[in-house]
Amino acid sequence: MARAGIFIGVDQTGGLQRLHDAAAGAHRMHAWAVAQGLADGTAARVITDEAGKVHPDQVFDAIQELLNGPGIEHLVLYFAGHGVNINRCEHWLLTDAPVKTSAAINVKGSAELAAYCGLGSVTIISDACRVAPDGIQAQNVRGVDVFPNTAASSRARPVDQFFACELGSTAAEVRDPQLAASTYRAVYTDALLDALTGKRPELLEPSGDPADPSLYLKPAALIDYLQAEVPRRVKAMHLHHRVNQQPESVVLVHKGWLSKLDPAMVEPATRGLGDPGSAGHGFAPRAVPAARAADAVVSRAATGNAAAVLRSIQALPGGAPRALARMADHASRIAEPFSTLHFETQCGFKVRGTRIVDFAVRRAQGQQLAPDLLRIDHVQGAAACVVIEFDGGIGTVVPAIPGFIAALTIDDGELVDVSYEPSDNTWRWNLFRDRADEIRALRGLAASASQQGRFRLTQADAGGVAQKMQYDKTVDPTLSIYAAHAYYDLQEVDRIREMADYQRADLGVTLFDLALLGRTLLRQAIAPARGVAPFVPMLSQGWALLSAHGITLPRELDGIETTMRESVWSLFDSDGVGKLRKTVESGGW
After folding, report:
1. Under DSSP, is residue 98 helix (H, G, I), strand (E, B) or coil?
2. pLDDT, position 457
3. Is the dihedral of CA 526, 531, 537, 543 positive or negative?
4. Is 0.85 topped by the overall pTM?
5. 437 is in which domain, residue-wise?
6. Same domain, 219 and 121
């Protein structure tokens, strides 16, 4: 298998705190690649800021050259430096960021293009923070995609992604107690290299071919190891009260491997185990960190009884893992129905955690009945886009769907949930009522997991969620959005398209996120005739894919990305609300 690697390290980004091991970490990863047989300077390339600025074009050009070269089948793209979480998606900050808003790499968009660039597989490794942007400059960073938009493959190929920490967390760079006080080491990269170089033999697999004695490290073997080992190292350095570093991974099941090792060069399995100063310390593959426990809750809810799962985490004792306690509290609140269950018109909106200040709608009639209630009538067509402004000048755009009431929840200035349920004076209500507790519980858990950046499914879970979304001949609109984003991580594009077709047949309209993730809007200008609603992604993480898909939004929305607030569901400041209002008032939405 012909392989290549690009290793990026940026110690200094704008006026942010200078790092001391980002460039050095890139060199250590590069040295591993060379030891794997990748030719230095051609198949194995290192890009750091030691000799000058690092900008996106350098990375793009390097990837383009490799793709145009002879027969590369697998590419490793590694980054160490500052990162920021914008709209629930990671961006790598390069030298001129955040002053230059394009001096960053959009990881999600790049991963999307990587899946279709023609390579057999791609591995993206990020040793960077994933914290929310601090200040207006960082909020305006948008970044660029660094894989070419060639669509060389008609079907997605595996793109595995490894992140040093969860969304909203800091990746630790700490003083190494074994070296000089002025030397710093990146915890995640060092833990990863121990696995890649054979210092963790329990992670390696034989080839299964008698003619090939090599041992292989496959992507799936790293998941539990990194999630247990990195926090252990942080704790051993007494940083666990200052650094929240729980690695995350998005790994697809495939035959690819990351490292190929000669058994004679692999350290004995007992070496380092139990030695406090070593990288070993007796990793137990069966140990499941708290973050994985939260993932397991989502999996059990998707494939079993979601209401029972929610009750079980609600009953956990006070000493339960913090991630589960947060999930139980948030999911319980979202799952609890509130306010009215119907309007006479069978369509409308209700909010909690704030009040409705104003609204705009053109293809329907609206009447505000109370600070938290907006009734909609005479919807023209299958859906009408409604701009809702909340207290504090923030707002969003959501579709009004005949026969449904949409419930919007604002929590601490963030739109944490949008859910649709049939109005209880419609024929759909009788179909929904018998499964209401189950659907609400699953929705609550999905909303909570999404807020923590953890709503992911396994291949085995996918069918279970599909069944839960459907009751008789209708589909839960909210679950379809959560599920579409989870299916996207699994590259289950066909399943998303089937869900979108089912939704259009049922409701007469396709929600924007399903059309986006189903790749049916590629290189399209969004217009009312497209039959999607609303005219922007509903979940914030969808925005990172617009550029990769070549999607053009209505011209009234130019620059609206810079008005977005940090939120699970798309939420905008007053300037953004103005742009949304102009779009609704000027178009056939």
Report:
1. coil
2. 74
3. negative
4. yes
5. 313-586
6. yes
